[in-house]
């Protein structure tokens, strides 16, 4: 076990900003540049999960040398240049045996210059990924909390007793755990992750109870713990555990209120609104979404305001208030058209035109306008970035249901077949429930083209346990 003495939160060598990389980004926002990186990766068959946070870390010098996947992408984007031409340190200076040995002795991770490669492939090792998310932070606090198979002692209080004060490396490990959980959910859905993700959440609150070396570190820990509570709440939400989700969202909201963090508060209200809609409490969904918008106005993110207006629209649709829904949808579209900004929260990486279309499809479906819902659902599935496998499955399931209820059983069966193909990779009770409802609607149309084959395949498909 590592010593309980917490190393200084100041690194031995302060990172040097990568000014070259910043110049190469040009006028694009970090989110826009991250999207360009992902597009370039697809062009050469690579899979990277670049987001605005990663771009910030590169430009701040925290990532001295990218992993090999990112290296290939960057060299593809900027042909004729080397890594050093892009402002990175030579790989030999950060990957040598001496550097690795020093990292082992101090508990430091190689994450700052070889990030995300370990979780760009899943291989159904969710528990190992989540364990590493807390073990690679480097601090003694994280090491003390990394006793169980998922990166946490079976008794969270034991982890708390084993630590003194949390440092910057612990806050970094917590933030990384949030990213990894979100990434795995994007690709594979919630059902296989929820129970595994609860342990890192206990570790996060053990870190808060232990205290921090600096106020900035404490602020990062509270924000990270709140975001992790929302992520775990979403996993519960998407896997049908609504009571658990409500508890986790409430925990995140309380954390936001204690620390005066409007970004975290808006996020917690956003997810609470979504949960209320799904749980059949549409008026609560409207109130929570409106509360989120009041908090978020000061944050300067039109895209966040757009998403929150969509959450409100979903509540109005549940109340069968078409006028209220249409007004909220119009605001969502107007905010969205203002484009991305530096103020967009990192957790909103999923929110693009595809999600806008998908959420609008859900509103029209709730209102019973099946043809209009199907149009938006089809467009959502076509627009979605291939990285978000779960969302592609979700939008296609929405499309199948809208087509079935709108009297187009043959097209619904085709869409349902595509969902079943995707469910080989995705575990989501939400999607399975939607598909089960579609199959019930299609039962009287078994003789229509393709419907019988879909129903038979759906009946034999293994259910999530």
From TrEMBL:
Biased composition (Polar residues): 1-11
Residue ranges, annotated region (Disordered): 1-22, 94-118
Organism lineage: Bacteria, Bacillati, Actinomycetota, Actinomycetes, Kitasatosporales
Protein name: Tetratricopeptide (TPR) repeat protein
């Amino acid at each position: 076990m590592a010593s309980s003495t917490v190393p200084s939160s100041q690194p031995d060598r302060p990172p040097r900003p990568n000014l070259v990389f910043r110049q190469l980004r040009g006028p694009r926002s970090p989110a826009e540049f991250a999207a360009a990186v992902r597009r370039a990766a697809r062009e050469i068959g690579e899979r990277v999960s670049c987001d605005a946070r990663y771009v910030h870390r590169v430009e701040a010098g925290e990532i001295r040398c990218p992993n090999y996947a990112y290296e290939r992408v960057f060299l593809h984007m900027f042909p004729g240049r080397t890594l050093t031409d892009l402002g990175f340190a030579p790989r030999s200076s950060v990957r040598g045996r001496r550097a690795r040995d020093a990292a082992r002795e101090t508990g430091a991770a190689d994450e700052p210059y070889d990030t995300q490669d370990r979780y760009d492939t899943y291989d159904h090792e969710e528990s190992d990924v989540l364990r590493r998310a807390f073990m690679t932070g480097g601090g003694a606090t994280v090491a003390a909390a990394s006793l169980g198979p998922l990166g946490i002692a079976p008794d969270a209080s034991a982890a708390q007793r084993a630590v003194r004060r949390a440092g910057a490396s612990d806050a970094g490990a917590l933030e990384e755990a949030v990213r990894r959980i979100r990434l795995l959910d994007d690709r594979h859905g919630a059902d296989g992750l929820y129970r595994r993700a609860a342990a890192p959440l206990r570790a996060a609150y053990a870190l808060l109870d232990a205290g921090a070396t600096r106020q900035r570190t404490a602020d990062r820990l509270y924000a990270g713990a709140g975001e992790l509570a929302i992520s775990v709440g979403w996993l519960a939400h998407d896997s049908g555990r609504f009571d658990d989700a409500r508890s986790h969202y409430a925990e995140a909201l309380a954390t936001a209120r204690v620390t005066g963090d409007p970004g975290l508060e808006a996020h917690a209200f956003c997810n609470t609104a979504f949960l209320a809609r799904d749980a059949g409490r549409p008026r609560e969904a409207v109130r929570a979404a409106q509360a989120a918008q009041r908090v978020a106005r000061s944050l300067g993110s039109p895209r966040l305001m757009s998403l929150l207006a969509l959450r409100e629209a979903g509540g109005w649709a549940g109340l069968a208030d078409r006028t209220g829904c249409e007004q909220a949808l119009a605001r969502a579209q107007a905010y969205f058209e203002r484009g991305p900004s530096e103020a967009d929260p990192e957790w909103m990486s999923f929110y693009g035109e595809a999600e806008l279309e998908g959420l609008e499809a859900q509103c029209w479906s709730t209102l019973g306008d099946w043809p209009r819902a199907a149009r938006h659902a089809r467009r959502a599935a076509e627009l979605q970035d291939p990285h978000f496998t779960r969302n592609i499955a979700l939008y296609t399931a929405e499309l199948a249901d809208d087509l079935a209820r709108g009297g187009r059983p043959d097209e619904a069966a085709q869409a349902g077949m595509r969902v079943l193909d995707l469910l080989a990779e995705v575990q989501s009770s939400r999607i399975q429930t939607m598909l089960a409802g579609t199959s019930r609607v299609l039962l009287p149309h078994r003789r229509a083209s393709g419907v019988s084959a879909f129903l038979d395949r759906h009946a034999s498909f293994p259910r999530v346990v």
